[in-house]
Amino acid sequence: MVVAAELIRSAQSGDRDALITLLREIESHVYRTAYYILGNEQDAMDAAQEALIRIYTKIETYEEKALFKTWVQRIVTNICIDKFRRKKPTVSIEEHNMSFPNEQNIEEEIVLSDVAKEIREAIDKLPEHHRAVVVLRYMQDFSYKEIAESLNLPLNTVKSYLFRARQQLQNLLQEYQKGGVRG
Amino acid sequence: MSEQEVMEYMQRYLDDDLTEDEYARLKEHLENDPHNSMLFERMKRLSDDLARLPKVTPPYSIVDSIIPKLEEMEPIQDERDRSQKRSNLFRSYKLWSAAAAVLLLAVIVFQNGLPFPATSGSTGSSGSVRTSGSASTASGDATLFSATSAEIGRAEKGDTSSASLKSELSGNVPSARGAGSEGNGNAGTNIASPAAPAPDQPVSSTPDSRRSQHDEVPNEKVEGLPPLIADADGGAEVADTGATGFSYEEQSGRYGFLYRETEDGEGGHETVVSAFPGSNEDEALASVSPDGSRTAYVYREGESVRVSITEAAETRYVSEPFYADEVELNWSEDGTTLVIVWTDGDNQRSVIRVDGTTYAEIRD
Question: Is the CA virtual torsion B263, B265, B270, B273 positive or negative?
């Protein structure tokens, strides 16, 4: 996601058309993050809408010292983590594994390949911060530093979350292959 | 190569983070390590699969769907927003809350060799925390703590999804200085836990997924903060003269300053006390130690909060991010011990214990 600095400046100076154009440029990126963190289309649409509205109202608070894309991703990941927490306030890992597939996912699952489906289900089982790190690394192609900036986490924490997340995914997928954990 | 090194190298390889030399070392090692060699192949496949996940797009234009709503609102003016924050935040000073004081405590001891007065032998997966004796009810005991706390409310109007951060003084915490030896020095707090380990045992993480995120040792320097331009001694003036107010100014969504506002003949001025990590999505709360040498700071991002402390112009995280609805920060009178009390989404009270190398959460 590379948004022209000029467009951002126009949007910040009150050019509403520029601001709308800017939102159009980032909406897919915002949605993609929300989709893989929240795991279904409806929640992702809600979160993406909320994020875009927030960006619209807060555009003047963005300063060029931070990358625009990390500023945007910070907003959407915060919203997703809020939603995630509200949806599953107390669920433990054990309970989570026992949950039934969400009805809302049925349509999407037809579209996704088997491998992608397994991976997405495995991502759904990660703790939220691990999930956010994985999503920013692979869906936004962010570096450690960009992830750290987006999530306001120290670089070493980002690495440790990412490494642990991949290890967890690896274990979960192995269990799938053994015919394991589906609840 | 040690097992840990092999794991790290394999992981970093997946992120193109290995130098050529490091990759050569890894490759050489894996030639004689069939188990990890297989694991490496699986990890590479996983990473490739992750990179190939469908680049999903929204089923219809989100922007089109929100344009009517956007037309009803104006982008927020930055300056207006900021000045509101400056005047409203860090505004609350409460002296005592008996209810809050009943349940305690997280403890951070800053000086080597100090015991753990409040949480000796206090961990355990089902441990409860309660105060005992007169200290739990007598408001006079609040003098044990004379911390100054401050509050920042939710910055965004109309957002009712998050509980506000509240701060208040909660006394009854025995100071590190007055605690005596480990195990019997609980001047005001008794930790009831049938499974409590000996005080000198390391705090272990528990199977609870939400607790497991506290298993890493904090005390990590916060990078990227600006140097303090005043009060390089950590703001010792604050406690000496009495702060009349605090404000928080966000800079580029990356960090904020804590100011001390004082009245003078000209109408008042501000002195920078501390710099903290933070963003314009945050709620935050700060507490200056009674001796003025340290400032504890907690800020919110989403549902998580994280605690840092500024001392001698350097700010360090003293916790990992953790979930909390409400947080209180309280200093011992001598400024060596920080107590963090918070409630989580289940409205339960939880406790952190920190001794500089380890800390843990206890839930009642």
Answer: negative
Highest mean pLDDT among A53-67, B70-84, B172-186: A53-67
Tokens read off for B233: 């001694």
- Identify the residue among A12, A49, A69, A152 best suited for mutation to test binding to B, counting B beta carbons within 10 A and taking the highest: A152
Task: Count chain A–chain B contacts defined by CB atoms under 8 A.
Answer: 166
Would you call B53 and A36 a contact, using CB atoms and an 8 Å cutoff? yes
Of B108, B149, B100, B109, the residue nearest B129 (C-alpha): B100
SS3 content of chain A, % helix, strand, coil (to 5): 75, 0, 25
Distance separating alpha carbons of residues A46 and A53, to the nearest angstrom: 11
**Is the CB of A163 inside 8 Å of chain B's CB atoms?**
yes
Partner-chain residue, chosen from A27, A53, A129, that has the shortest CB–CB distance to B69: A53
Query: Is there a contact between B340 and B195 (Cβ–Cβ < 8 Å)?
Result: no
Q: Which helix (H) or strand (E) holds A38?
A: helix A16-38
The pLDDT, as a whole number, for residue B237 is: 33
* Measured CA distances, B95 to A68, B145, B171, B259, B260 (Å): 42, 10, 9, 21, 19
Q: Cβ–Cβ of B253/A31 closer than 8 Å?
A: no
Concatenate the DSSP letters of all residues of B162-192 into one string.
Answer: SPPP-------PPPSTT--STTT--SSEEEE
Closest CA to B318 of B292, B270, B347, B352: B352
Percent of the residues in chain B that have a pLDDT greater than 70, as a whole number:
31
Contact A48 B277 (CB under 8 A): no
Contacts of A115 in chain B (CB under 8 A): 49
Nearest to A52 among B17, B66, B208 (CB): B66
Q: Given CB atoms, is A142 within the 8 Å cutoff of chain B?
A: no
Q: Which of B348, B36, B252, B98 is nearest to A167 (CA)?
A: B36
CB contact under 8 A, A31 and B77: no
Q: Which range among A94-98, B35-39, B119-123 has the greatest average pLDDT?
A: B35-39
Q: Which residues of B touch A85 (CB under 8 A)?
A: 302-303, 323, 345
Contacts of B78 in chain A (CB under 8 A): 60-61
What is the largest distance, in Å, between two alpha-carbon atoms of chain A? 57
pTM: 0.48
CA A48, A54, A55, A56 dihedral sign is positive
Higher pLDDT, A48 or B311: A48
Look up residue B204 and give its DSSP letter: P
* Residues B51 and B21 sit within 8 Å (Cβ to Cβ): no
Residue B205: CB atoms within 10 A of its CB come to 16
